[in-house]
Each structure stands twice: as structure tokens, then as C-alpha cells.
Write a structure and sequence with these properties.
363 residues, mainly alpha, single chain
Length: 363
């Protein structure tokens, strides 16, 4: 995603004008996703289980980060149609990956809807973003605690006016609002927080000095660590365990939020150069996501081997290693081989760039 040239320290940019730390955060989201999908154990102290809390919320927050940057870079008039094209691409990728047979709940459709919502909201003042984030988060928790049938009853009159039946409405309400594991209102809350974070790090009207940006990112990371630490401590004191992921309880939502702020704030504060390797898959997120689902679907059809656990699942360290190594190496190989215009960014990214080119800055 192009970043506003006047709002970010030069040290955080790649040659193509992208914010390195944002792409590194995307790369970390991919790694966390692969751990969440295939790690056979939680690791020392269950630390790897935190990937279940981090992955989807971090992807959602990064949608907000990208939407805010693009709104400032292009203006709403161009950012919204570009978001519509991206959303269509995400829906298409969701359909495609659904054919692979991976034992994974696909997040792409939720991110597609979120992409459009954030394009419409990205240019609002930061205070409005914060208020909307609180309302979306609270509303998401209330919806998750409400039976799907009750929510459908309230929405049915409006749905019927649009020609939708209860049978058609119910699975959509269940998948996007009430049952999860992904709830769109909570995704919106994290996306709005991501937009606020990137705006405070890089400023909204004047350039932010590198030192100021690092200190702001550090403050966000410290706040995230404190929030996640308090939630984990209280949860372990009361229940003996961390909050259960994907349950949309207040404790789980707060833990997820703390982890997201920690990662985004730390990436902005460190402005990682030595971790720039993660920025390569982070700039090719959609293609890597689709490839990893293809792999997980493919190994399901294989016989016994290191890719299958004793119970027949894909939760093995072999798969963790293959996916992470592939996520790092394949984008590098692609860029070394493919030099053709927009497709150097990635196979799916190149297609999206071609489709969104008419809505660029025209430079």
C-alpha cells in the first residue's frame, strides 16, 4: 500500500514507497497464521497459542492501517473504488480457496467486507474512529452473546424488504455477526484502532520526525503489553487458563486488542531493517495466503508422512516449517524471476494492481 510521502520517515520506506514496518507486520501476521493453523502444541508456557488470538485481529487492524494510508495518499474519491476492486478480489480468492479443501475457516470474505467499510470511514477524524471502535467492539460483544435467531428476528423485516428470506439471512448473520469464529463488528473495531495507530505514528497534516514516530510506536506497544498482560494475569487467576480464542468474550477481545497494539506499535517503534525479510511476504500477503491454503488442502489428500499427525490432522512441525519457509522463500523467488510491471508484486497482487490502476494518482 502506498504511504503518504509527507507523513513517514524515509527510513521506513522501501524503494516502491511502501512502509516497511507495515509490511513487516503483515509478514508477522502470516507467520502467526501458519503457527495457529498447524502447530501441534502450544510451545513453552502455551505461548504459541497466542497466535490464535493475534492472527485474525492483526489482519483486520492492518486493513485499517492500509485504508488510512490510502485515504490520505489518494483521497476518498479514488480510495473507495480501489477498495471495491480489492474487496471483489478478496471474495474471488475466498471462492477459489474454498475449492482447495483445507481444514481452515477462511477469513477472506470478512476482510473483503471490512475493506469496503474502512474505505468509507478512513478519512474521518481520529476521535470519530475511537468512538466508532468502542461502539463496534461493544456491539460485537453484545451480538456474540445474543442467540442468532433473536438477531435474525430483528433484521428480518428489513431483509424481507430486500427480498431475503429467513433461510437466506440466518447463515450470514451466524457467520458474520454472532457465531464466528470471526465477527465483523470486532474486526471493524480493530481496523479502526489500526487506522488511529498509524495516523498517530506518522501524523495527519505534517511530517513526523523519525524519533517521534518511534516513541509513539513504543507507547502503543507498551500499552498493548500492559493490556494483554493484565488480561492474561486476571484470566489465569480466575480460571487457571488464558481466555479461549474465537469466543468473543470481553477478556478474549481485550487480549486480542493488546496483542495487536503490541505488534503494530513494536513494528512502528523498531522500524525493523534487520527484519526486512518479513516485509517481502508481507508485500505479497494475498498470494501467500492463497498458497498456504492450497498446501493445506493438498496435504490432506496425501498418505501418512511427516505432514500428517498421529490422528490424521495437519498439525505437525513439518507443516509449520514448510509453510513459514515457503512464505519467506517463494516471494523472493517470484521477484527474482518475474520482472513484468505490476506482476513483480505477486501473481494476485499484480492482477489487483492492474484493476486498480485507473484509480491511482495518475503519476
Amino acid at each position: 500500500m502506498p504511504a503518504p510521502s509527507s507523513h513517514a520517515p524515509a527510513a521506513t520506506h522501501t524503494a516502491r514507497g511502501r512502509l516497511v514496518w507495515v509490511d513487516v507486520a503483515r509478514g508477522l501476521a502470516l507467520v502467526a497464521m501458519m503457527v495457529a493453523h498447524t502447530a501441534p502444541t502450544g510451545g513453552p508456557g502455551g505461548v504459541l497459542h497466542l497466535s490464535e488470538h493475534l492472527t485474525a485481529p492483526l489482519f483486520a487492524a492492518l486493513v485499517g492501517v492500509g485504508a488510512r494510508l490510502e485515504a490520505e495518499w489518494l483521497g476518498r474519491g479514488r480510495a473507495v473504488p480501489r477498495a471495491l476492486v480489492r474487496a471483489a478480489a478478496l471474495f474471488g480468492a475466498a471462492w477459489l480457496t474454498g475449492l482447495f479443501g483445507a481444514a481452515v475457516v477462511n477469513v477472506l470474505a470478512h476482510l473483503a467486507v471490512l475493506t469496503v467499510l474502512m474505505a468509507l470511514l478512513a478519512a474521518l477524524p481520529l476521535a470519530a474512529h475511537l468512538v466508532l471502535a468502542v461502539l463496534a467492539g461493544g456491539g460485537g460483544l453484545l451480538l456474540a452473546a445474543t442467540p442468532t435467531a433473536d438477531v435474525v428476528d430483528r433484521l428480518l423485516p428489513a431483509a424481507q424488504a430486500l427480498g431475503l428470506s429467513r433461510a437466506t439471512l440466518t447463515p450470514w448473520v451466524s457467520a458474520f455477526l454472532t457465531d464466528g469464529p470471526y465477527r465483523l463488528p470486532l474486526f471493524l473495531a480493530w481496523a479502526l484502532l489500526g487506522a488511529v495507530l498509524v495516523a498517530t505514528v506518522h501524523g495527519t497534516t505534517t511530517a513526523a520526525p523519525a524519533r517521534s514516530a518511534r516513541l509513539t510506536g513504543l507507547a502503543w506497544a507498551a500499552g498493548g503489553i500492559a493490556l494483554a498482560g493484565v488480561v492474561l494475569a486476571l484470566s489465569r487467576t480466575r480460571t487457571g487458563a488464558a481466555p479461549v480464542p474465537y469466543t468473543a468474550t470481553p477478556a478474549e477481545a481485550l487480549l486480542d486488542t493488546g496483542l495487536v497494539l503490541t505488534v503494530l506499535g513494536a513494528c512502528a517503534a523498531l522500524m525493523p531493517r534487520r527484519c526486512a525479510l518479513l516485509a517481502v511476504p508481507g508485500a505479497m500477503t494475498l498470494s501467500v495466503y492463497v498458497a498456504h491454503l492450497w498446501y493445506l488442502g493438498w496435504v490432506r489428500g496425501l498418505g501418512p508422512g511427516p505432514w500428517r499427525s498421529a490422528t490424521g490432522t495437519d498439525d505437525t512441525w513439518f507443516n509449520v516449517t514448510v509453510l513459514i519457509a515457503g512464505a519467506l522463500l517463494l516471494p523472493l523467488l517470484w521477484r527474482a524471476i518475474v520482472q513484468l510491471g505490476p506482476f513483480r508484486a505477486g501473481p494476485l497482487e499484480g492482477l489487483v494492481r492492474l484493476l486498480t490502476a485507473p484509480f491511482g494518482r495518475g503519476r
